[in-house]
Amino acid sequence: MAITGSDPSSGSSSKDERAFDQWRRTAAAITGLGLTPEEAKIRQQNRNEKILNAQRQQCLLWRNDLLRQSPAVTFMTQHIGQQGISVDASNIVCRPCNKERSGGFSPGLQEVLLCQDGFHSKKHMEDTLVHELIHLYDHAKFKVDWNDLRHVACSEIRAANLSGDCKWDRELMRRGILGFTKHHQVCVRRRATLSVAQHPACKSEEDAKRAVNEAWESCIGDTRPFDEIY
After folding, report:
1. Are residues 88 and 148 in the same domain?
2. How many C-beta neighbours within 10 Å does residue 113 have?
3. Same domain for 105 and 157?
4. Quick one: which of 103, 205, 211, 219 has the most CB atoms within 10 Å?
5. Can you tell me the distance from the alpha carbon of 166 to that of 183, in angstroms, rounded to the nearest whole number?
6. pLDDT per residue as tens digits for the range 183-200
7. Tell me, what's the pLDDT at 155?
8. What percent of the chain has pLDDT over 70?
9. What's the pTM?
Protein backbone atom coordinates (compact mmCIF):
# COMPACT_ATOMS: atom_id res chain seq x y z
CA MET A 1 0.00 0.00 0.00
CA ALA A 2 1.31 3.39 -0.93
CA ILE A 3 1.90 5.84 1.86
CA THR A 4 1.20 9.47 1.15
CA GLY A 5 2.07 12.48 3.25
CA SER A 6 4.05 15.72 3.31
CA ASP A 7 7.79 15.93 2.75
CA PRO A 8 9.32 16.34 6.22
CA SER A 9 11.83 18.80 4.76
CA SER A 10 9.25 21.04 3.11
CA GLY A 11 8.47 23.04 6.26
CA SER A 12 12.14 23.72 6.83
CA SER A 13 12.63 24.65 3.18
CA SER A 14 9.73 27.09 3.28
CA LYS A 15 11.09 28.64 6.45
CA ASP A 16 14.52 29.05 4.88
CA GLU A 17 12.99 30.72 1.82
CA ARG A 18 11.14 33.20 4.00
CA ALA A 19 14.28 33.96 5.97
CA PHE A 20 16.26 34.47 2.77
CA ASP A 21 13.59 36.72 1.32
CA GLN A 22 13.60 38.80 4.51
CA TRP A 23 17.39 39.06 4.36
CA ARG A 24 17.22 40.07 0.70
CA ARG A 25 14.71 42.80 1.39
CA THR A 26 16.72 44.14 4.33
CA ALA A 27 19.93 44.16 2.28
CA ALA A 28 18.14 45.83 -0.62
CA ALA A 29 16.68 48.49 1.67
CA ILE A 30 20.15 49.30 3.02
CA THR A 31 22.11 49.20 -0.23
CA GLY A 32 19.38 50.04 -2.74
CA LEU A 33 20.45 47.07 -4.87
CA GLY A 34 17.84 44.68 -6.16
CA LEU A 35 14.87 46.95 -5.43
CA THR A 36 11.97 47.23 -7.81
CA PRO A 37 11.42 50.75 -9.24
CA GLU A 38 8.51 51.26 -6.85
CA GLU A 39 10.56 50.09 -3.85
CA ALA A 40 13.45 52.36 -4.90
CA LYS A 41 11.07 55.33 -5.15
CA ILE A 42 9.68 54.67 -1.67
CA ARG A 43 13.21 54.28 -0.29
CA GLN A 44 14.27 57.63 -1.76
CA GLN A 45 11.15 59.35 -0.46
CA ASN A 46 11.84 58.02 3.04
CA ARG A 47 15.44 59.22 2.86
CA ASN A 48 14.34 62.66 1.66
CA GLU A 49 11.81 62.94 4.49
CA LYS A 50 14.47 62.06 7.05
CA ILE A 51 16.87 64.66 5.61
CA LEU A 52 14.18 67.36 5.54
CA ASN A 53 13.13 66.56 9.10
CA ALA A 54 16.74 66.69 10.33
CA GLN A 55 17.30 70.01 8.54
CA ARG A 56 14.10 71.45 9.98
CA GLN A 57 14.95 70.40 13.53
CA GLN A 58 18.42 71.92 13.23
CA CYS A 59 16.97 75.14 11.78
CA LEU A 60 14.41 75.44 14.58
CA LEU A 61 17.06 74.78 17.24
CA TRP A 62 19.41 77.46 15.88
CA ARG A 63 16.56 79.92 15.34
CA ASN A 64 15.35 79.55 18.92
CA ASP A 65 18.88 79.90 20.27
CA LEU A 66 19.45 83.07 18.25
CA LEU A 67 16.17 84.60 19.40
CA ARG A 68 17.26 84.04 23.00
CA GLN A 69 21.00 84.66 22.86
CA SER A 70 22.08 86.70 19.81
CA PRO A 71 22.66 90.37 20.72
CA ALA A 72 22.18 91.48 17.09
CA VAL A 73 18.94 89.51 16.63
CA THR A 74 17.58 90.68 20.00
CA PHE A 75 18.49 94.27 19.11
CA MET A 76 16.63 94.03 15.81
CA THR A 77 13.52 92.37 17.25
CA GLN A 78 13.29 95.06 19.94
CA HIS A 79 13.53 97.90 17.43
CA ILE A 80 11.03 96.26 15.09
CA GLY A 81 8.73 95.89 18.09
CA GLN A 82 9.00 99.64 18.67
CA GLN A 83 7.61 100.07 15.15
CA GLY A 84 4.53 98.04 16.08
CA ILE A 85 5.44 94.60 14.72
CA SER A 86 6.08 91.77 17.15
CA VAL A 87 8.82 89.34 16.10
CA ASP A 88 9.07 85.86 17.54
CA ALA A 89 9.12 82.22 16.47
CA SER A 90 5.65 82.55 14.95
CA ASN A 91 6.81 84.80 12.09
CA ILE A 92 10.33 83.45 11.63
CA VAL A 93 9.76 80.18 9.80
CA CYS A 94 12.00 77.31 8.68
CA ARG A 95 11.27 75.82 5.26
CA PRO A 96 13.25 74.08 2.49
CA CYS A 97 14.31 76.38 -0.35
CA ASN A 98 17.25 75.72 -2.64
CA LYS A 99 21.02 76.03 -2.58
CA GLU A 100 20.94 79.51 -4.13
CA ARG A 101 19.47 81.29 -1.12
CA SER A 102 19.47 81.17 2.65
CA GLY A 103 16.52 83.36 3.57
CA GLY A 104 13.76 85.71 2.50
CA PHE A 105 11.21 88.24 3.65
CA SER A 106 7.50 88.40 2.82
CA PRO A 107 6.11 91.94 3.23
CA GLY A 108 2.51 90.75 2.92
CA LEU A 109 2.87 88.21 5.71
CA GLN A 110 5.44 90.24 7.67
CA GLU A 111 7.28 86.96 7.86
CA VAL A 112 10.97 86.03 7.73
CA LEU A 113 11.94 82.82 5.95
CA LEU A 114 14.97 80.78 7.00
CA CYS A 115 15.95 78.24 4.37
CA GLN A 116 16.55 75.10 6.42
CA ASP A 117 18.71 73.60 3.67
CA GLY A 118 20.82 76.73 3.18
CA PHE A 119 23.00 77.13 6.27
CA HIS A 120 26.60 76.14 6.95
CA SER A 121 26.57 77.18 10.60
CA LYS A 122 24.61 79.02 13.26
CA LYS A 123 26.69 82.13 12.54
CA HIS A 124 25.61 81.95 8.90
CA MET A 125 21.99 81.80 10.08
CA GLU A 126 22.55 84.74 12.43
CA ASP A 127 23.83 86.96 9.62
CA THR A 128 20.94 85.87 7.37
CA LEU A 129 18.37 86.49 10.09
CA VAL A 130 19.72 89.97 10.79
CA HIS A 131 19.67 90.67 7.04
CA GLU A 132 16.00 89.73 6.74
CA LEU A 133 15.07 91.53 9.96
CA ILE A 134 16.53 94.73 8.48
CA HIS A 135 14.05 94.31 5.61
CA LEU A 136 11.25 93.88 8.15
CA TYR A 137 12.45 96.97 10.06
CA ASP A 138 12.49 99.00 6.84
CA HIS A 139 9.02 97.71 6.01
CA ALA A 140 7.69 98.87 9.38
CA LYS A 141 9.52 102.19 9.70
CA PHE A 142 9.80 103.52 6.17
CA LYS A 143 6.68 102.09 4.50
CA VAL A 144 8.71 100.65 1.65
CA ASP A 145 7.02 100.19 -1.72
CA TRP A 146 8.31 96.71 -2.55
CA ASN A 147 7.28 97.12 -6.18
CA ASP A 148 9.58 100.12 -6.62
CA LEU A 149 13.08 98.87 -7.48
CA ARG A 150 14.74 101.92 -5.93
CA HIS A 151 13.00 101.21 -2.63
CA VAL A 152 13.99 97.56 -2.88
CA ALA A 153 17.57 98.54 -3.72
CA CYS A 154 17.79 100.82 -0.70
CA SER A 155 16.69 98.07 1.66
CA GLU A 156 19.05 95.57 0.02
CA ILE A 157 21.96 98.02 0.35
CA ARG A 158 21.19 98.53 4.02
CA ALA A 159 20.76 94.81 4.69
CA ALA A 160 24.02 93.84 2.99
CA ASN A 161 25.81 96.73 4.71
CA LEU A 162 24.56 96.09 8.26
CA SER A 163 24.01 92.34 8.58
CA GLY A 164 27.55 90.99 8.41
CA ASP A 165 26.92 89.65 4.92
CA CYS A 166 30.02 91.44 3.64
CA LYS A 167 32.51 90.66 6.37
CA TRP A 168 35.84 89.77 4.79
CA ASP A 169 35.96 86.26 6.29
CA ARG A 170 32.52 85.40 4.91
CA GLU A 171 33.49 86.73 1.50
CA LEU A 172 36.67 84.68 1.52
CA MET A 173 35.43 81.43 3.06
CA ARG A 174 31.98 81.26 1.45
CA ARG A 175 32.49 82.98 -1.88
CA GLY A 176 36.22 82.73 -2.49
CA ILE A 177 36.49 86.51 -2.86
CA LEU A 178 39.34 88.45 -1.29
CA GLY A 179 39.35 92.21 -1.78
CA PHE A 180 41.37 95.02 -0.29
CA THR A 181 40.46 98.43 -1.71
CA LYS A 182 36.97 99.45 -0.56
CA HIS A 183 36.23 95.76 -0.10
CA HIS A 184 33.12 96.32 2.02
CA GLN A 185 31.42 98.76 -0.33
CA VAL A 186 32.24 96.66 -3.39
CA CYS A 187 30.64 93.64 -1.68
CA VAL A 188 27.55 95.59 -0.59
CA ARG A 189 27.01 96.90 -4.11
CA ARG A 190 27.43 93.42 -5.61
CA ARG A 191 25.17 91.66 -3.10
CA ALA A 192 22.46 94.33 -3.36
CA THR A 193 22.51 94.16 -7.15
CA LEU A 194 22.17 90.37 -7.09
CA SER A 195 19.19 90.60 -4.75
CA VAL A 196 17.43 93.32 -6.75
CA ALA A 197 17.97 91.32 -9.95
CA GLN A 198 15.91 88.48 -8.44
CA HIS A 199 12.92 90.75 -7.81
CA PRO A 200 9.93 89.94 -10.08
CA ALA A 201 9.72 93.58 -11.19
CA CYS A 202 13.34 93.64 -12.33
CA LYS A 203 13.69 92.92 -16.04
CA SER A 204 17.47 92.77 -16.33
CA GLU A 205 20.76 93.01 -14.50
CA GLU A 206 21.15 96.51 -15.91
CA ASP A 207 17.89 97.56 -14.25
CA ALA A 208 19.20 96.16 -10.97
CA LYS A 209 22.50 98.03 -11.28
CA ARG A 210 20.65 101.26 -12.13
CA ALA A 211 18.37 100.95 -9.10
CA VAL A 212 21.32 100.30 -6.77
CA ASN A 213 23.26 103.25 -8.23
CA GLU A 214 20.29 105.58 -7.79
CA ALA A 215 19.72 104.53 -4.17
CA TRP A 216 23.38 104.26 -3.18
CA GLU A 217 24.25 107.70 -1.82
CA SER A 218 21.16 108.08 0.34
CA CYS A 219 21.16 104.50 1.68
CA ILE A 220 24.75 103.33 2.21
CA GLY A 221 25.25 105.75 5.11
CA ASP A 222 21.91 104.95 6.79
CA THR A 223 22.74 102.53 9.61
CA ARG A 224 19.42 102.72 11.49
CA PRO A 225 18.64 101.20 13.93
CA PHE A 226 22.38 100.59 14.54
CA ASP A 227 24.68 103.43 15.53
CA GLU A 228 27.33 101.99 13.22
CA ILE A 229 27.90 99.01 10.92
CA TYR A 230 27.26 95.73 12.77
Report:
1. no
2. 21
3. no
4. 211
5. 8
6. 889 999 999 999 999 999
7. 98
8. 75
9. 0.77
Residue-level pLDDT at 29: 55
**Neighbouring C-beta atoms of residue 167, cutoff 10 Å:** 18
Clarify whether 17 is annotated catalytic. Answer: no
Strands across the sheet containing 111-115: 92-95, 111-115, 103-106
Q: How far is CA 32 from CA 2, 28, 29, 48, 61, in A?
A: 50, 5, 5, 14, 32
37 prior amide bond cis, ω within 30: no
Largest interatomic CA distance in the chain: 110
Catalytic residue among 132, 171, 214, 217: 132
User: Is residue 22 classed as helix, strand or coil in its secondary structure?
Assistant: helix
CA end-to-end distance (rounded Å), the chain? 100
Residue at a domain's end among 103, 119, 135: 119
- Whether residue 225 lies inside any domain: the answer is yes
- The whole domain housing 75 covers 43-119
Residue 5 lies in a domain: no
Give the three-state DSSP class for 113. Answer: strand
- Please compute the mean of the pLDDT values over residues 14-22 and round it to a whole number: 66
Number of domains the chain contains: 2
